[in-house]
Write a sequence for this structure.
């Protein structure tokens, strides 16, 4: 090979090789990472990041991931996976972009950075994000979270020794202790959910009802977001009212849906309906964190209503 051809080939190879924000030691191949974790008996540390726009992601890389104490502290415990969602899409291959988007949905990731610790099967057992204090502190934090895997496995093993409702409640407690999104639990712990159903066919624990309700709410949100992108406010309002009246939702889900109705009505300029919906949302659970924000929303809507009435009077 001629010298200029050699440098051209080397340059192309460099451009095609992924550059990881955290430096060397990371991979973007999720399937390969799971296999490596299984072979080396390690856990996965999966970083969902926006490398060229997310301020906290950049801080996490600069303050923690790029430093030797972090690399040394995790090398024997974790396989490191970076799933990037950059604004500059040219940084990623089409295959990587498709993989990352699928995994973002599968693991219900809504903010960045999201750090999920997973076993070799890709089942999360802990969730975190940016932590101040530098690499040593972060490694200590990860070690504490890593203990959640041992507790999970011990809890599952103990539950297997129980029967009926007691077994179901023990499995539910093990899942709840991890603090994972219900959509992630359904997707990644389907065998455990099935075991709960079998052990508690009457659903005395209420777990299955909660899981199914949250799944329906997630589907409702997906449909609502699709309508919002097309500015179909009337269709969005009809969908929301149908969801509220379906009887499928209660508690937090019902409160959220009713509050969403108020926001849609406000966008449509029906401020009285918006205020009535917010009052109804607050009544669902007056002591909830969401209810504590209702008065702020109502103040804003009343301001919008007053401005509209003032404009009307001026035009007349």
């Amino acid at each position: 090979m001629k010298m200029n051809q050699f440098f051209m080939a080397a340059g192309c190879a460099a451009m095609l090789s992924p550059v990881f924000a955290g430096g060397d030691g990371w991979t973007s191949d999720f399937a390969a990472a799971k296999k490596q974790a299984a072979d080396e008996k390690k856990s996965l540390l999966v970083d969902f990041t926006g490398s060229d726009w997310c301020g906290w992601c950049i801080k996490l890389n600069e303050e923690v991931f790029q430093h030797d104490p972090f690399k040394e502290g995790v090398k024997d415990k974790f396989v490191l996976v970076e799933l990037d969602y950059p604004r500059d899409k040219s940084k990623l291959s089409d295959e990587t972009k498709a993989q990352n988007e699928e995994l973002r949905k599968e693991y219900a990731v809504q903010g960045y950075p999201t750090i999920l610790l997973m076993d070799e099967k890709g089942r999360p057992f802990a969730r975190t994000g940016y932590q101040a204090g530098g690499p040593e502190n972060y490694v200590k934090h990860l070690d504490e979270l890593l203990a959640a895997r041992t507790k999970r496995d011990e809890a599952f093993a103990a539950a297997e020794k129980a029967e009926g409702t007691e077994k179901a409640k023990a499995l539910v407690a093990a899942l709840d202790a991890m603090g994972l999104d219900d959509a992630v639990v359904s997707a990644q712990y389907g065998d455990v959910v099935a075991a709960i159903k079998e052990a508690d066919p009457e659903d005395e624990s209420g777990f299955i009802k909660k899981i199914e309700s949250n799944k329906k709410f997630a589907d409702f949100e997906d449909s609502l977001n699709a309508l919002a992108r097309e500015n179909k406010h009337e269709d969005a309002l009809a969908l929301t009212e149908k969801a509220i009246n379906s009887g499928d939702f209660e508690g937090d889900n019902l409160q959220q849906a009713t509050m969403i109705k108020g926001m849609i009505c406000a966008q449509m300029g029906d401020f009285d309906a918006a205020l009535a919906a917010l009052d109804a949302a607050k009544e669902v659970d007056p002591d909830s964190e969401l209810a504590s924000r209702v008065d702020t929303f109502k103040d804003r809507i009343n301001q919008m209503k007053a401005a509209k009435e003032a404009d009307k009077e001026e035009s007349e």
Confidence is low (pLDDT under 50) at residues 5-17. The beta strands are 26-27, 43-49, 78-84, 114-118, 124-128.
